[in-house]
Amino acid sequence: MASFSLASKLPLLRSDHPDDLLGSQPFSAAVKAVYSGPSSKLFNLNCQVNIHSFTSYRDARFSASNVPRATAEIVVDSATEKGEGSGGRLLRVGLVCGGPSAERGISLNSVRSVLDHIHGDDLQVNCYYIDRDLNAFAVAPAQVYSNTPANFDFNLECLAHRFLSLSKFVEHLAAAVDIVFPVIHGQFGEDGGIQELLEKYNIPCVATGSSECRRTFDKYEASLELRKQGFVTVPNILVQGSEPNESEVAKWFTSNQLDTKSGKVVVKPVRAGSSIGVTVAYGVVDALQKAKDIKLEVAYHTPPRFPIEVTRTIREGASWLFRQLGLRDFARIDGWFLPSSTNSFFGTTDGNFGRSDMGTVLFTEINLWNGADKLLISSSFKERQVSVISGTNDCLNLQGFDDLEVIPCLLAPSDGRSSNAGSRTVWSLSYSLVLRHTVEEVLDACTEATDPSRASLTSQLRKQVMGDLMEGLEKHRWFNGFDITDEKPVKFSLQEWIKHAKEVQATVILTVHGDIGEDGTLQSLLQAEGIPYTGPGILASKICMDKVATSLAVSHLSDFGVLTINKDVRTKEELLKNPSLKIWNQLTSKLQCGTLCVKPTRDGCSNGVARIHCSEDLAVYVAALEECLPRIPPNSFSKAHRPIEMPNPPPKKLIFEPFIETDEIIVSSKSADGLLWEGESRWVEITVGVVGKRGCMQSLSPSITVKEGGDILSLEEKFQGGTDINLTPPPPSIVSEEALEKSKQRIELVANTLELEGFSRIDAFLNVDSGEVLVIEVNTIPGMTHSTVLIHQALAEQPPVYPHLFFRRLLDLASDRTI
Predict the structure, then answer these.
(1) pLDDT band at 568, cuts 50/70/90?
(2) 623 pLDDT tier (thresholds 50, 70, 90)
(3) CATH number attached to the domain at 545-562+676-780
């Protein structure tokens, strides 16, 4: 089923006992050890609003932050444990994620965020996973830090405890946990499925009950309910069956003043998540045949940029609707604000709530789960977005340590007017600003927060929210009050910021991906002032930023099993001036290969990295450089490929290398270990983290990435919850234990030769027989998002090193370094 609806026209730095490194671009944080009193309980009311649409949250519960973190573990019996030193009983929380829908990957993002926020000495957290066939498993918390459910789906029987049925699973929950926190998006989560099972066994559950879920999950039924409750709604029609009635749909178009051939409508599944399967169609025929998904790029403004009267109407409507529908704990209500000039379509609808002289407020959807970790990326700024995610992840994992004060800071992108790094702008950020989706949103919010008129509006709205919440909650005995005030961001020049960092004896956590964060510039500025920082020093950063210099620095290690890839460097001007066929012949002759890999000499991650099969492919790539394209569209070359994100501005120099062929590793249920690998090529691509002090770096367990759709991983797939599968550690069916240990020793040799320290990531090819490594590149500030494979590697250690302890270790290494 699908429905059609009208498309509208419409604190600062610190550190002492620090520990944490990340990897990213314009994001850095500083930490100072402080002695603090008992952790305060905070309530974060988050109202998200788009310029033309709004999203409202209602949350009736509160969670503590800045408290010590409890160890999460699987519970397989009903034993009741006591909190050490507290004399009280542990609250046993069951987190249930996954599910059968396409949104189960988003569910992993959400459950990670919940894990990062609910922790304490009085909590015991147990994780459970529902696969696409509705089989239930008890899983280690480490599994939910996987890039995608596919990382462990194929091996669940070995990694987790499987329950014989959903009934047995719920019986276990009744004995093993005190309350269940479902984090399942879409089917079985938002449609009331899991809630109904829990209700049968009288198991307390966070969020709305099953009957209310069923009523609100169906978009068409929800729209009827909204209309019944007196709200203005968007005209819509329900289309069912494989052969819908075209004349009926055409009649609906006409009645709503839409051209039957070109009228613009939104088509969406009736029972799916807020963006799953949503598409825009034009005319009756297109609307009936449209099946292609679209992805929406959204900007959130908190507080909204509406007049205060409109904001009040939205809040009142969302609150009233929440009560009338019997929703519980929290929900996200989506809708539109249509100014008076654009709401002519809705003049004849039955609802009255939300109408005013300024325009009309329409509620369109009720979401009982919102993706807690959504990131909407702008194509030319991908590394800086990874930086924000890394910095946010860093803050969330360190906030539980009572002896630390963590203050996130944002290095704004260069405006290009000055080459002096010290004049760059740095903002210190509040907690709420860190949770914005993109660098651009954070910067906009900083500007608004320091604008007197916007600050006044924010203050006024905050007082209203505080007053309403106090009135509603003070009748509860458990309510002790709260404070949702937010410190204003503070603007510095980079030079001023470094001076302040020195004054407060800060340790700086660098997560500035690429740019001055990885080329030694920031390291030089900090080191000159004696300020400890995470990651390698000046010289190591400079060398590793340059892929050619990195290769030369380790080229003498071939006798020790460390190999490098032959390279040829060409300038952009040379490529533009000469015929592509001439350059192609020169390169293939010199490098003795038939397929090339091209990449910028000094850019991070996958930007500008492409596989070139012929001179025509090279001509397409050079044209993209000349035209400063943000990306090369998919399948522009002679063989199929994914979109290729290009650096901006285009690089001055590029490296050409022989493309290293590796055999495809396929996830398959037909194999005993769930994997198929021909193994004709004895090389596999690995990525591995190294941690420690200079000269004593230790290798984590390498990861093999199973690339399911192309040759080169995109930036999102590396760091933002992509679709590719990481095998950590490499399975014995592919790499022997002996070869694996030899490869780790050689990776450590590379790290120590380059004088790395703190934490870095090394990408290489591994010979599965000999353990030899063929070095690709070294990243001195790798991305440290929830989805990065390096978190998986720390969790694969024995015993597992959970993210908050891993980040603390990195911070301690930075504090102990000699500047």
Answers:
(1) very high
(2) very high
(3) 3.30.470.20
